[in-house]
Structures are given as structure tokens and as C-alpha cells.
Specification:
The protein is built from 3 helices and 15 strands. It is mostly beta strands and about 350 residues long. The strands form 2 sheets. It has a 10-stranded antiparallel beta barrel with strand order 2-3-7-8-10-11-12-13-14-15. A two-stranded antiparallel sheet has the order 1-9. A hairpin with a 3-residue loop joins strand 11 and strand 12. The chain is globular and about 85 Å long. The N terminus is likely disordered.
């Protein structure tokens, strides 16, 4: 296990390095926006109170048997954050009173999901380490309990970058980081690329004994996954009365996927060409000073095994509800300077 996590952490460091390069590029991305469509607030600090829940799920599908869905027991978090220019900092914690024990078992995880929105580019980074999953079917575990596997581990790393072609009229930031205000409906085409690496493993078969009959995945204990490819998409924000907004975005990536299956006594390698999708949705109220909104970002990463009837899916995402307020730093600075000047004169 230590060697596996050492490899995963090394991969995480590589992706962090790539992320820093992307962030540097995003910070240098100049633009001129049409203020009749959206406005930015360069002299403000956007402060937010929010709730969030992240997740990474693993699904095994076979047309001859029922699907097996492994879910993590992640915490529902309460957090605070702030954005100034291109820099955002968010801190959240899963307090006990928000997360009662409902028999799903314990999931240990490190989940780093970063979504960077510059005017002309959107960049997404994922670095996730999960251990401990449950099934919705309790399989005889008893009333109020779930079938729990503490040995199931899923690691997933990903990086994507898409160009926003109508950046002068369309703002992702207004919907997702609340430091801009989309006043008029607009949409944009997107084009870019994505790359992912994932591994799922367990000490014994992923398939519970109750599901193993006629199941070609019944001896699977580990699978490695790598994919990359170009993608296109579209995003649109509908604005009503300048303040109420609904944002929807989808990208489709033609993914060249490579899977390496480790069965109890054999290994199998398979290549497939399969679409990968990412969804973004947001809705709420946005104005000059306040934003109250909710958003959801999700990835659907399918790939096939050696047996063409075997399909595996990584699903990852994040739900958020936000209350944000913008503080004008210039006005506050001027106010403090006037107060200091008044005190000095007295």
C-alpha cells in the first residue's frame, strides 16, 4: 500500500507543477469585456460563506449482471473564502453536527479540486486519494447499515484546459467565483484538451459474492486507467431582469483510453476510444454587491475493459451553495485615509 500511495503522491506533485504553470498563464491573460453583458470589480474583495460536498465514485457495469456502484462517505463542509483579482482562498471543515453517522462506514480521503477561471480560459485540476467505500445495497449488513469495504481505494488525477471564445460577453467567474456580474444573457463555444490517470484497487474482488455469478469482473482486484484527448463544448448563461441567472456548460472529450486490468491470477490490457464529459451548472441571484447561488461541477469518465461488455466509470464532482458579498477596497481605503487625516488635524 505504501508503494502505491508513494506513486500516487509523486503523480500528484507533477500535476501540481502543471497547475502552477496554468495558473501563471491565467494571471497574464488580458482582456477587454463588453460591460453591457458583464462587469468586473477590480477594486473589490469578494468574501463568501459556503457549504460544499466533494465526491469520487467508482462504478463497474456489465450487461449480464447488475451494476456495482461504490460511493465514498464524504463530509458535508461549511467554509469561508475570499477572492481578489485572480487569487482565491477557501477554507472549509466538515463539522460533526453536519455529518451524523448513518452506517455508511468511514472514508479517508484527500480531495484537491481546483477550478481556475480566467477571462479567456477555464482550467481544472483534480488530485484525489480515497479509501473506504460503501454500496447502497446492504447485502445482509443489517437494518440501517450499508455494505462497506474499507479496503477499496481509488486515486484519480486530472488536468483540463479550455479556451472561452466569447470571453468579451460571457463570464464563468460571475457564476462560479462571484467576482463578476453577468447582466445580460450570453453563450460561448469552448475548445481544449484533457488528461486523466486513475487507479482503483482492493484486497479482494470488487464484485461482492452475491453479484459474482456470470460476471466477467468477478476476479478483478485492480485496474489502472489513463486517457487523453481533445474536446469541444458550449456554455450559456440565461439572465432574467439582470439579476437572476441560470448557467449551463458541457464539454465532450474524445478520449483515447488505456486500461490495465489485474485479475486474481492474470492481467489484461485494453485500448478504447470513448467520450468523456464534464458538466457545470449554476443558478441564483447576482448583483453589484451580493451573490446568492448554488453550483455543481461533475466529471463522467468511462472506459472499457478487455471484455467489451465490461465498463468502468469514475464519477467525480463538487456541490456548493454560496452567499457572497463584495467589499470595495478603494472606498474603504479612502475612508480610512480621511479618518487618519481628521485625527492628525485635531
Amino acid at each position: 500500500m505504501a508503494d502505491c500511495y508513494k506513486t500516487s503522491l509523486n503523480g500528484l506533485l507533477v500535476f501540481v507543477f502543471i497547475l502552477l504553470i496554468s495558473l501563471s498563464a491565467a494571471a497574464q491573460d488580458g482582456h477587454i469585456n463588453d460591460t453591457t453583458y458583464y462587469v468586473d470589480f477590480p477594486q473589490t474583495i469578494t468574501a463568501r460563506l459556503y457549504t460544499s460536498q466533494k465526491y469520487t465514485q467508482f462504478t463497474l457495469k456489465n450487461k449480464d449482471t447488475r451494476d456495482v456502484h461504490y460511493y465514498p462517505n464524504t463530509t458535508f463542509n461549511l467554509g469561508v473564502g475570499a477572492t481578489y483579482h485572480n487569487f482565491s482562498l477557501n477554507l472549509a471543515y466538515g463539522f460533526g453536527f453536519l455529518n451524523p453517522d448513518v452506517g455508511k462506514g468511514k472514508t479517508k480521503y484527500l480531495d484537491l479540486q481546483s477550478h481556475l477561471y480566467s477571462p479567456k480560459w477555464v482550467t481544472d485540476f483534480e488530485g484525489q486519494l480515497y479509501k473506504g467505500f460503501y454500496l447502497e445495497d446492504n447485502l445482509g449488513a443489517g437494518p440501517g447499515k450499508y455494505y462497506y469495504r474499507g479496503d477499496v481505494k481509488v486515486d484519480l488525477f486530472g488536468l483540463s484546459r479550455y479556451r472561452i471564445f466569447n470571453s468579451s460577453r460571457f463570464s464563468y467567474r460571475a457564476a462560479f467565483i462571484q467576482n463578476e456580474w453577468q447582466k445580460k444573457s450570453a453563450g460561448t463555444f469552448l475548445a481544449g484538451a484533457e488528461i486523466y490517470y486513475g487507479v482503483a484497487r482492493s484486497d479482494s474482488s470488487f464484485i461482492p459474492k452475491a453479484y459474482q455469478q456470470n460476471n466477467s469482473q468477478s476476479n478483478l482486484q485492480k485496474i489502472n486507467y489513463f486517457s487523453f484527448g481533445p474536446g469541444i463544448g458550449y456554455a450559456y448563461t440565461l439572465v432574467l431582469a439582470q439579476h437572476v441567472f441560470f448557467t449551463g456548460s458541457v464539454t465532450g472529450n474524445l478520449s483515447f483510453s488505456f486500461a490495465n486490468e489485474h485479475l486474481s491470477n492474470t492481467k489484461g490490457f485494453h485500448f478504447s476510444l470513448i467520450p468523456v464529459t464534464r458538466y457545470r451548472m449554476a443558478a441564483g441571484y447576482n448583483g453589484r454587491s451580493w451573490d446568492v447561488s448554488a453550483n455543481w461541477i461533475a466529471d463522467n469518465l468511462p472506459f472499457t475493459g478487455v471484455n467489451k461488455n465490461d465498463i468502468y466509470i469514475f464519477n467525480t464532482g463538487n456541490y456548493r451553495f454560496i452567499i457572497a458579498h463584495r467589499f470595495n477596497t478603494r472606498k474603504r481605503l479612502q475612508k480610512h485615509l480621511l479618518l487618519i487625516n481628521k485625527i492628525l488635524k485635531e
